[in-house]
Write a structure and sequence with these properties.
4% of the residues lie in helices and 49% in strands. The chain has five helices and 44 strands.
Length: 820
């Protein structure tokens, strides 16, 4: 009655057919589509918590949607950015109490690496959404062997489609709110007599930022090419190249309440329609530092990878995946001052046993005097005429100016300004390999490994603005100071093995596996310290155990447990941070457990219920020695320590019903994520809720299909309130602010979306063989809400708290897709 799970091709994506006789699949017998889709959406056949977003759901989304935003429909996940389509700096992702830097991500099994917006890679840069066919999201720990240095709380794999067997092409044209434009074209060669097929595609996107006069500009150009060679007998060879170039003026963080307004340009309760950035140039650097066009991110990424799959014997399979990823990018920021090194040199390496060269800030010319050697010294007289207090200097946009002796106001010169540009470069080379085979009829063995060599550079360069009255433009020759010159070199090695056993006439499936991982990194920054710092850690043995029991064709229960590992982040190396912390810091680990039950019926109905518990241990926390130090200079001293952790537990319910003319999908989650130990330097007390992790969330979607041509979908997404600050904190930073900052909560919200599509029969004007028109509306009722908290952007208490990003407003999109 029960048989081994089969895998068949559905378009270009492998789809698990659960609860279906293997003989029927191998013979190509018809399998009910609703059962297939319902099963994979609920993760049927997996011995752990797992959800699948299939091609049908992906096709309903707005063209060009960031693939991370698809995860909003996965139970236990919350995704948001200040833009309805995408977002880099403002992109927030939370899953069971973990953020995006604690979740593993891959594209076609190739590791994405760090998901930092600047100095890392967001997954949308390595694929085009038009080629996305499937997303596998594991809320627990992912499949054994998933390649990541940061997967403490889950794993996500984005799968892209292969070349078509038939010669043809596709065109996708989109327009929408805020000037959105997207064009996509793809050409497929079809499969030749020798078994070779290939495709080439190109896309271009443009959209303006939405607040104010929409002065920000986001552009993206993307190219993909793939060649697939059929080697026969189920063996194949794929070669893929992806190139992406984008420029992004993103959104700024805001405060929640007016009490925090001294730290931020805008407050949510004050005006939820703005982040406080300006749209017009004034010529006053104190104001123009908030001009949206003076801040942003550029990035150019190239990813190349090969996927060789070789079948051998009756059941053996070897896969080898070498890859190379290169990125060059920068983030820029305009400031109303010039930050000069005190020795007058652009580049000042630290001598052995010495300290970094100090820097001084000046907002006006003639503020300081230079000695014959070029050193800067304050004027001897200190005079603050009436109205020229240190507070008024800060209001004028001159950070830290009160530390230095000032000329009288009458002697102040012209305003000065700089562009602080952080350049970054990444070079990742690696390979994955795995061999698997059946041992007898009921046992399958997998053995594999992953190696990666990464080199990264991060520089912080200061350029004098040519004429602040006119614009923020500068020349490369105007470089006057380098305050960071950071170089990283890391090596990752991972090995894993698994024994998957079927017992009791295939009713019971046991997955017994373990992973071992080693990570080593060297770090140098000649202008911040002398020498090279090295850190090497290993995961020890990480067991990963799971069991699946099939009660009958409709019901199954599962349970899994795993220990996970995250390599020590770069922050413990950087600047002065590593001086007191490089010895004794342990890598963060988590123990993930889940248990669940799934039910699917022959008529397309299904349900899944999962309960889980996560213990996140050895959390690396901030211990600031100088919280008021200038983090863009060299005087901030930050150390780190392993203190406490996070406990996360909850339940997730998923429901699905599918028929000939309708589809219903819903999920609800309850997540209790809290800190388990006190972290005094961060203001955290045991049992404080984890920032940005709502306790309650839900998603519901209904689709009506009156005919093959028409489709209407409506959905609603509820996110409960989530903590935005750690707790009641005394005010030690803001003059004139409240004595105590009480814990803040981001308010709950519900968003409603609509999708309408029409696929006329026949060709379009005799040219297109398949045509589709689609209209999407995101946030239909224009709800104003906070999408997430920027906890990782801050460095000290209470500055660590209360940084939020606005959610995206109501947005319309219209798309035409034509396949030839």
């Amino acid at each position: 009655m029960y048989s081994k799970l089969g895998v068949i091709a559905a378009g270009s994506v492998a789809v698990l057919q659960c609860g279906v006789p293997a003989q029927a699949q191998e013979a190509g017998e018809a399998v009910p589509t609703v059962v297939q889709v319902t099963g994979q959406v609920l993760g049927k056949g997996e011995a752990r918590a797992n959800s699948v977003i299939d091609q049908a759901v992906i096709a309903e989304q707005p063209a060009g949607l960031d693939p991370l935003k698809l995860l909003a429909r996965v139970p236990g996940m919350q995704v948001s950015s200040s833009d309805a389509l995408t977002g880099s700096f403002s992109m927030r992702l939370s899953m069971r109490g973990f953020n995006k830097e604690q979740i593993g991500i891959s594209i076609d099994g190739i590791p994405n690496g760090s998901t930092l917006s600047n100095g890392g890679t967001m997954p949308n840069r390595l694929l085009d959404p038009a080629n996305l066919v499937r997303v596998d999201a594991s809320q627990t720990a992912g499949d054994l062997g998933t390649p990541s240095n940061q997967a403490l709380g889950g794993y996500i794999d984005f799968k892209t489609r292969d070349p078509s067997r038939e010669r043809g092409g596709e065109v996708e044209l989109s327009t929408g709110s805020f000037g959105y434009q997207r064009g996509f074209v793809r050409v497929d060669t079809g499969k030749s007599a020798s078994g070779t097929s290939a495709y080439l595609d190109y896309s271009h996107e443009y959209v303006r930022t939405w607040p104010g006069d929409e002065s920000g500009r986001n552009t993206r150009r993307h190219i993909d090419a793939r060649v697939l060679q059929d080697l026969g007998g189920g063996s194949s060879l794929r070669a893929t190249v992806s190139y992406n170039k984008f420029s992004d003026n993103d959104y700024d963080a805001v405060a929640l309440l007016a009490a925090s307004s001294k730290l931020y340009k805008a407050t949510f309760y004050g005006d939820p329609t703005t982040d406080g950035l300006t749209d017009h140039w004034t010529g006053n650097p104190a104001i123009d530092q908030n001009y949206r066009g003076t801040r942003g991110i550029n990035s150019e990424d190239t990813l190349m990878h090969i996927d060789w799959t070789q079948r051998f014997g009756d059941s053996g399979k070897l896969t080898v995946k070498p890859y190379w990823h290169k990125q060059d990018g920068n983030g820029w920021f305009y400031v109303p001052y010039v930050q000069l090194p005190s020795n007058g040199l652009v580049y000042s390496p630290v001598a052995a046993g010495g300290k970094p060269t100090a820097v001084v800030q000046e907002c006006y010319q003639n503020q300081y005097q230079r000695t014959a050697s070029g050193a800067l010294i304050p004027v001897s007289a200190i005079s603050y005429p009436s109205g020229s207090s240190s507070a008024s200097l800060a209001t004028a946009g001159c950070p830290a100016a009160a530390k230095y002796a000032m000329n009288p106001v009458a002697q102040w010169g012209a305003r000065e300004a700089s562009t602080r540009r952080s350049d970054n470069a990444i070079d990742r080379k690696g390979a994955l390999a795995e061999v698997s085979s059946m041992l007898g009829e009921y046992q399958r063995i997998r053995v594999g490994g992953w190696v990666e060599r990464t080199t990264r550079d991060k520089d912080r360069n200061w350029f004098a603005v040519t004429d602040p009255i006119v614009s923020g433009a500068f020349k490369d020759s105007a470089l006057y100071s380098i305050t960071q010159d950071r170089h990283y070199s890391s090596n990752t090695a991972m090995a894993y093995a698994q024994d998957k056993v079927s017992l009791m006439d295939n009713r019971l499936q046991l997955d017994l596996g373990a992973t071992y991982q080693r990570f080593k990194e060297d770090y140098s920054s000649p202008v911040e310290f002398n020498g090279v710092r090295t850190l090497e850690v290993s995961s020890r043995l990480l067991p990963k155990l799971a069991a699946l029991y099939r009660v009958n064709d409709d019901w199954e229960v599962f349970a899994s447990g795993s220990k996970n590992f995250s390599a020590i982040p770069d922050t413990v190396f950087e600047g002065t941070a590593a001086v007191d912390s490089k010895n004794g810091i342990k890598p963060e680990t988590s123990i993930n457990k889940d248990i669940g039950v799934r039910w699917t019926s022959d008529n397309g109905y299904g349900a899944a219920l999962t309960a889980y518990k996560i213990d996140y241990r050895d959390r690396i926390s901030i211990q600031n020695g100088n919280p008021n130090g200038d983090i863009f200079s060299r005087d901030a001293t930050t150390t780190f320590a392993n203190q406490g952790g996070i406990s996360s537990q909850g339940v997730e319910l998923t429901l699905r019903a599918s028929g000939a003319s309708y589809e219903l999908y819903a999920n609800a989650s309850y997540n209790d994520a809290h800190y388990v130990g006190d972290t005094p330097a961060e203001g955290i007390k045991a049992n404080d809720p984890v920032l940005g992790a709502p306790r309650r969330s839900a998603f519901a979607e209904a689709t009506w299909k009156p005919s093959e041509a028409w489709r209407l979908t409506a959905n609603a997404h509820y996110v409960g309130e989530a903590a935005g600050t750690y707790g009641d904190l005394p005010n030690t930073v803001i003059t004139g602010g409240p004595a105590v900052y009480p814990r803040q909560y981001m308010p709950a919200y519900t968003l409603v979306g609509l999708n309408f599509s029409y696929k006329p029969s026949g060709s379009l004007f005799g040219y297109g063989s398949r045509t589709e028109f689609a209209v999407n509306v995101d946030n239909l009722f224009d709800r104003r809400y906070l999408g997430g908290v920027g906890a990782e952007l801050t460095s000290s208490s209470p500055l660590t708290t209360g940084r939020y990003f606005l959610g995206s407003p109501r947005t319309f999109y219209a798309t035409m897709r034509v396949k030839f």
